[in-house]
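sanity check this record:

:::
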Amino acid sequence: MTTAQFAAIAKLLRVRDGAAREAACLVLVDGHRPSEAARLTGLSASSVSNAVSRFKRGLELAQVAAAA
């Protein structure tokens, strides 16, 4: 996912700035492992997993909407 895509999905999902958003960005944009993103942001592994899943689902829904 590109930085622009990430920002657009964050806006669509109304995700505020914070550790969860940063962790998702580290994984989806920068290519870090979730465990590394958790360590860097101070979140639990499950919180990072939830944030990443939310962004991936948002991207899937945006792609479906764009194809319609």
In short: DSSP finds four helices and no strands in the chain. The helical segments are 3-13, 19-28, 34-41, 45-67.
